[in-house]
Every structure is written in structure tokens, then in C-alpha cells.
Amino acid sequence: MSVKFEKETVRDTPVPGGRREDIAQKVGERLTGGMSQTGYLAAYLQQLQSNPLRTKMLTSGTLSALQEILASWIAKDVTKHGHYVSSRVPKMAVYGAFISAPLGHLLISILQKLFSGRTSLRAKILQILVSNLVVSPIQNSVYLGSMAVIAGARTFHQIRATVKAGFLPVMKVSWITSPLALAFAQKFLPEHTWVPFFNMISFFIGTYVNSHTKKKRLAALRRKHYGDGRRDD
Q: Could you report the per-residue pLDDT of 4-57, keeping only the tens digit for each?
């Protein structure tokens, strides 16, 4: 007795949205590397370990310039030529690359060395306190002073007045966000990724503060302009 097996033809059934899912999967694998660890994120993390300061400088410089452009776009703050890219953009890039990144690299490295190998809850809380009471005040003072110079301040008195006026409001924001960010970094991130992570947090906060400041300045200019116009009438 013979048994005959007939060949069955199996056709692939198109999955709704399959092409979009494939594209999303390919993009995700390219960014993260998937299982191969060859994506952009993996390459970036490798550069953070092999060339930490240079990578942090490029990251901070790029984010600082992008923050200025994005804040101008949100606030509708255009130049006299109708562009969102003003002379502040390259200055912010220089600040991010040559001031913010090296300073953050130094301070975070010191903070990590002070608490190296200490994983208790008490040590983590103490690290957060040192960050908020020592690291953040230094970084915020340098940030405010640099912003004063970028805005046109040229004397020590002008820079000091800017730092004094903005220090407490900026510190209040730091005291809210910094403990949460540092606690997250302690729990989930390797130490060499801390500075870029904090740069991303600063990017979002800085974009909000910068755009809010621009909106207030533009509103004040409009009030002055229309007010002067009414007096002329």
C-alpha cells in the first residue's frame, strides 16, 4: 500500500500595518543595535567609555545649540531676517562644549569617586545631598554667569548681578529635579552615562526656561512699543 502526500502551498497573509511595523523595527534596531549591539546607541556608549570627555563635549555643545533654536521657535522669537537661528546659537554651542561639559565631567567624576563602592541607602541619600548642596550651586552659578556674558554683560558687576538675581529661582528648579534624576541614575544607569543623562534633563528644563524667558521679553517689548505708540497719539 502506498501513501501519497500532496504538496500544500502556503501563502503569506499580509498583516495590516506590517510595513510600518517593519520600518519601525528596523529604525529601532539601527538606533539601539538590537541583539548585535552595532546601532547608534551602542556606538555612542562605546565612545563614552573610550573617549568620555570628547563625547560629552560634542553632546553638550549640540544640545545647547539645539536648545536655543527650539526655545526661539517655541517663543516665536525670530531675528531681523526672520530666522530662528541667531548669533546666540554658536555661543551656546561653545558654552555647552567647552564650559558645561568639562565642568560636569569633573564634578560628576569627583562625586562618583567619593561614593565609589558605597551602595547603602545612607550613601545614596548622602550623594544626593552633596550633589544638591555642592555640585548644583557650582554648575548653576557658572551657567548664569555664562548666560550673562552671552547676553552682553562685560563687567564683573553685571555678571554678579545676573547670577545673584537668577541663582535662587534656578536652584529651586534644581532641588526639585536633581534628586529625582540622580536617584534614577543611581538605580538604572552605568556611571559613564550619567553626564549625558543629566545633559538631557538640563536640555528639556533649559528649553522650557529659555522659551519662557523669551516670551516674557517679547511681551515686554510689545507693551513698550504699543505704549509708546499710544503716548505719541
A: 545 555 455 555 555 666 665 665 555 445 555 557 888 998 999 999 999 999
Calculated CA dihedral for residues 109, 112, 113, 114, nearest 10 degrees? 120
Instruction: Give the angle 189-118-130 at the CA atoms, nearest 5°.
Output: 80
**Inter-residue contact 198 to 108 (CB < 8 Å):** yes
CA proximity to 47, closest of 39, 25, 96 = 39
pTM summary value: 0.76
The band of 127, judged by pLDDT with boundaries at 50, 70 and 90, is very high
Residues of the chain by 3-state class (helix, strand, coil), percent to 5:
80, 0, 20
HSE at residue 54, side-chain half, CA atoms within 13 A, is 6
Integer Cα distance of 195 and 101 in angstroms: 8
- The rounded distance, in Å, linking the Cα atoms of 213 and 70 is 13
Alpha-carbon distance 193 to 185, whole Å? 8
- Residue 85's contacts (CB-CB under 8 Å, 6 or more residues apart) are 69, 72, 79
**Position with higher pLDDT, 133 vs 6:** 133
